[in-house]
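pipeline/complex-builder :: batch 7 item 3
reading input block
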Amino acid sequence: MNQLSFIPTDTAHDIQTNMDQLIAKLKKEIIEHLNLQDVKPEDIKDNAPLFVEGLGLDSIDALELIVLLQKSYGIKLKSAEEGKTVFESVKSMAEYIEANKVS
Amino acid sequence: MPLNSEKTDVLVVGAGPAGCIAAAIVHKNGLKVRVVEKLKFPRFVIGESLLPRVMDHLEETGLLEEIESAGFQKKFGAKFVMGDYVCDFNFADQFSKGWTWTWQVPRAQFDHLLASGLVKKGISVEFETSLTSIHINEDESSMVTVENAQGEKTTIHARYVIDASGYGRALPNLLGLNKESSFDPRKTHFTHFRDPNRPEGVEGNRITAVVHKQNVWIWVIPFSNGNTSVGFVGDPSFFVGFPEDAEARMHAIVATNPFLKERFKDQEMVLSPRTIEGYAISSTKFFDKGYVTVGNATEFLDPIFSSGVTFAMESGSTAAKLVCRKLKGETVDFQTEYVDHMMQGINTFRSYVAAWYNGDLHQIFFSENKTEEIKKQICSVLAGYVWDLSNPFVRKNGQAIKSLAGVLRLNEPAIVYPN
């Protein structure tokens, strides 16, 4: 919390709550959009890798995540390449959405 | 058993690519094989572009050298053109390990060479001989009656029958196995042109698929003999309004395409133009007691990705190996080891054919925003390596194409088709 110490405590708390809600929402959307059977939101850890050794997503799923970002949040990624850092984990996705969302 | 009956381990019906590969595999396994072919070779047939996967089968059966000596036009990739858009696939850049080239062949000559290759191996191939009846016994062997051009009938006792009769559909007709395919019926009008205006060098010899209109495309397949195969494929309604006469119709259609007009205008046709309609046909069964159907005798897909000869050889090879194992006393499962294997490949190509006609593949091919990796993976599908499940564009075929087209459409204007 050190870097947030200049923000009044209740605001920092709101940001954290928003982020938690976004992460929870994203988990549901990923499962639904990628049609991941037998995966529950609680199976996806906030910081765990989405690809290969983590959730086991592949390059085609990455394309679907790009479509998801566009449809649900109005965010355009040009390619799967650009998505590499964005799609590291659900948390990194949520942070990217927060920073780039079209309000 | 009638006195005049002759015995063989395997009877192969049809001497096209599926039958030739199947017969060569049976022979290689030390079993007795006999081939009957309804027509006299050489004979014309469509399906002139091969895929690199074919080379594996030619090599395995020892028929590669037979073909190599003919000097057919080599094919190193696939090229798609629409107006000013060009999409080039080079098989050397493919994702899967495999052959990086193949040939473009007039099939009359190619198929004749394959059948001659069988004869050289000592396999009996009887031309102008068709199947007139079949009785399948309890032990899965068959009594098959065949009739030659002189009207002489012979009864063959075969321990197993491989039907590679293609458009002849010998067993599907005799046993009532025909079924309509789920594809929209398309019509094709094609010929072989003399091609003195062929561009110099590599480009002029390349096989090209040209998008003529949203639902009509053209194949251009240059042969090493100086002629070029040209065919229009599309919805039957496209052909309405062009002249009835086959040659006049071909000239009139060619004149409407900027890519073809200069090169083929007023050129002589060395093959009287032909029309095929509703060529997608399937079967209710691919095997049952005592027989298995291979090649076009099972199913024929759209010609856009040249998958026909590849499936013919893959099915001939796969089925023949199972038949050999069965005749040697092993228990084999034709459903999982043959049908499921073939459907994996056929369904992959089927999803690409569907994506070609619904425009998703046009969007992908003519976009510049594809990564190299994705292009390699699609390239392997186009090379016929549709059994490599480590390739996501094989494993998730339909979804992969749909997702990629979806992403590209987010960032690019929709493809504009020529009028």
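note: Chain A has a mean pLDDT of 83.
queue -> next item
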